[in-house]
Here is the input.
Amino acid sequence: MRMHKKGHLEERLEACADILTVADLSDKNMKRSALVKEYICFDEIFGNANPARLEIGCGKGKFVCETAKLNPYVNFIACEKISNVLIDACERVKAENIKNVYFLNCAAEVLPRYIKPGSVETIYLNFSNPLPKEGYKKQRLTHPRFLETYRSLLKEGGRIIQKTDDGAFFAFSLESYKQAGYKITEVCEDLKNNPVAGDVETEHEKMFKERGKPIYRIVAEV
Here is the structure.
């Protein structure tokens, strides 16, 4: 079902301009667009040199907002390509006066345009679209082509923390990490009954747990 555009979306995004960078979409070729560099200076936007973490596909922002509150001395960059969804997250951060979250309205492919190499310690992939059809395999956010991009953004010893409800996507991701040379340090096939301290439940996660679906979690290090 197609999502209806939220009312006054452009004005609302503009009102959040101090915590948001909207990607330049003048070049529709994302690979070429990523070669242009418009790095965000974390020290300037946050006013400190605290370590940074990145969530790719932040949705309406429940995870990043609650995780940021639990980790006030960590800075969070939250990426979401659908502005109609992202606006909810931006407005929540403004309403709750959360100072350690900044947003990127862009696709994962163009993250290297805005984020300096080796500048984030953790990447979160929470319930990314599994895209089960074989023809969409290269679009999955744990395909090796994306993992190479993430490697460039992560610090030495940095990690990816992934959660999914999809068993086939979980298996695909495990194999992708191995192919890309990541070290898998944690694997959980039932997060509901094996909770991790400090791990915040996402909107989708709550829904899937209520439906009785297993939640898978992977931690992979570069």
In short: The domain at 18-221 is CATH 3.40.50.150 (Rossmann fold). The chain has a mean pLDDT of 95. The two ends are 38 Å apart (CA to CA). The first helix runs from residue 9 to 15.
